[in-house]
Design brief:
Layout lengths: L7 H4 L3 H5 L14 H12 L5 E4 L10 E6 L5 E7 L2 E6 L17 H8 L1 H23 L1
Antiparallel strand pairs: 1-2, 2-3, 3-4
Length: 140
């Protein structure tokens, strides 16, 4: 099985922070708003799940955000996003179960890959279509 570590947020330009004197003390550290990170995660894989959105009821902060996801198998999860990665914190939207001790995943891809065979299939097919398109482009 293929792991993909592509984070669209790493590609964004954070030059605006460097000019802002309030952030000069943080040079070398990542000043990230997890809500923005969570929105990017959702936008990246929404096509391969039934429903996915950043929680409006659970608190988002600079260091944590919560994402609700419904897989194509109709299973619901609430995910916690932190610097450590993503993990399942409940088996329903907008919930947190402190008794759940689920592992962190570095990427949303590996987390969904472990939860949803249908996600894996849709994502794999999308990847194949993209590769086919690249192949056609390079031949023309």
């Amino acid at each position: 099985r293929m792991e993909t570590d592509c984070n669209p947020m790493e590609l964004s330009n954070n030059a605006g922070f460097e000019e802002d004197s309030d952030y000069r003390d943080f040079e070398g550290t990542d000043v990230k708003d997890m809500r923005l990170e969570a929105e990017a995660v959702v936008n990246d894989v929404l096509f391969a799940v039934s429903n996915m959105f950043v929680s409006k009821t659970l608190p988002c902060a600079e260091d944590v955000a919560y994402i609700n996801v419904e897989t194509r198998e109709r299973n619901r999860y609430c995910l916690e996003l932190t610097e450590a990665g993503l993990r399942v914190v409940a088996y329903d939207f907008d919930q947190m179960d402190d008794r759940l001790q689920t592992p962190y995943h570095e990427t949303v891809y590996s987390l969904l890959d472990s939860l949803s065979p249908a996600y894996r299939e849709v994502f794999g097919n999308a990847l194949l279509q993209r590769l086919e398109a690249l192949k056609k482009d390079s031949q023309s």
